[in-house]
Design goal:
Shape: elongated
Oligomer: single chain
Order of helices and strands: EHEHEHEHEHEHEEEHHEEEEEEHHHE
CATH class of the largest domain: Alpha Beta
Number of helices: 11
Radius of gyration: 28 Å
Largest sheet: 6 strands, mixed
Distance between the termini: 14 Å
Strand content: 15-25%
Helix content: 25-40%
Length: 396
């Protein structure tokens, strides 16, 4: 009866962003000519800037990784390549990859205006011609740092909003899973982004009966999270009134369809586990087929020929049932588990999951869950590109 919810922390990112707005404005200067460095040092420090100087693109990237800056003022040509500007253009791309909100101002000679334009296409905010006018350079820096600060504040606000949404979403998931005597239920769920589109629940229905569901909203991010919260509300509202999977899914489908966004839909598996009668009744609305593994090594997949939620409002769903035996393991999952891929793009796959469960059906529920997650993590080197949810049920 364990639930594990995982979500990226925003605390470090928020602290880093806030630090960028405090103290004197900090400018990183990438330049390899001593006379230019001396002139810029005098200009910047006399006008209230804290300046750090590096003489190569590699040193600039290292400085950006180590410290916070409000702007970078960079030359396009260095000693390795004094004419083409290739090193400077590569540096702009590297800056963009590190921080797309950074104020990037390029310094270029009179004869390389086309190169400066290319630099702006790559992400530079503005350029100053050499030899420069001090007032113009300072004005450009001030304008671009103001623009950068506005972008950073906007990003920070969005991050805080997503963090709040993630907290609400985690609160919707069961932290302590209440399962009936005769079964043990453990679960894990992690989002590929701050908020996700996976959902699972375990609901008590009466003596010896529990409802389990798992769902996956097509898409990621805030839109998927909002649709998932709508599903969660419908499930919780209807579960106590409609027990059997077929009518339950029909009611939920109508509720989701009424509030659905075009192009969005939900795969959904809902089942009722009766530990007293040793039976499972289920409806599968286009979700990955759960695995029911028996102690003797045999297994079956739980499917029904039904459409996903939110696409056909009046769909008549089907209901199936299967016998449960002592020692069985029921595995519910979303495709973030089976579609995680290795470096060559080969997915973990449902066949591999079925084989893994069949070989280890004797393990307690928590150990089997941890084994599946460990194997998926090892296969993908810990990189999950989609929300990943796993539920393991042990029948006693």
């Amino acid at each position: 009866m364990i639930s594990q919810l995982e979500s990226p922390s925003m605390a470090h990112a928020a602290t880093t962003e806030l630090q960028a707005f405090s103290g004197r404005p900090r400018v990183l200067v990438a330049e390899d000519q001593e006379d230019v460095i001396a002139a810029l040092l005098l200009l910047l420090k006399n006008n209230g800037y804290e300046a750090e100087f590096v003489n190569s693109p590699a040193a600039a990237v290292n400085a950006l990784k180590s410290h916070n800056f409000d702007a970078i003022l960079l030359d396009l040509n260095y000693s390795r390549d004094t004419t083409s500007g290739a090193e400077g253009l590569e540096l702009i791309s590297a800056v963009q990859a590190l921080d797309s909100t950074m104020a990037v101002v390029v310094m270029t000679a009179w004869g390389s205006i086309e190169l400066a334009v290319d630099a702006m296409h790559r992400g530079a905010c503005d350029f100053v011609q050499k030899p420069w006018d001090n007032r113009q350079l300072l004005n450009v820096l001030e304008q671009q740092m103001k623009r950068s600060q506005e972008l950073r504040l906007k990003r920070l606000n969005e991050q805080f909003e997503q963090q709040e949404a993630a907290q609400v979403q985690r609160a919707l998931m069961p932290h302590e899973i209440a399962a009936r005597d005769g079964v043990t239920v453990v679960a894990s769920s992690q989002s590929a982004r701050t908020v996700g589109g996976d959902y699972y629940d375990v609901i008590e229905l009466g003596e010896h009966r529990s409802a389990l569901c798992v769902a996956d909203v097509v898409g990621k991010g805030m839109g998927a999270a909002l649709l998932m919260s709508n599903l969660q509300a419908a499930v919780r509202m209807l579960a106590s009134d409609v027990i059997e999977p077929k009518p339950f899914c029909e009611r939920v489908n109508k509720a989701v369809s009424a509030n659905n966004v075009p192009g969005k839909f939900i795969t959904f598996f809902y089942c009722v586990v009766d530990s007293g009668e040793k039976r499972i009744s289920f409806t599968n609305a286009g979700h990955n087929w759960p695995v029911l593994a028996h102690a003797d090594g045999s297994w079956l997949r739980l499917s029904s020929d039904d459409v996903v939620l939110g696409t056909m409002r009046e769909w008549s769903y089907h209901q199936q049932q299967a016998e449960l035996r002592s020692g069985d393991r029921l595995i519910l999952f979303t495709d973030g588990i089976t579609e995680c891929a290795d470096a060559e793009g080969q997915e973990f796959g449902e066949d591999r999951l079925v084989e893994l469960v069949s070989r280890n059906v004797h393990l307690p529920a928590s150990e089997l869950k941890d084994l599946i997650l460990s194997c998926a993590n090892e296969h993908s080197k810990g990189v999950f590109t989609d929300d990943a949810t796993l539920i393991v049920v042990a029948v006693h």
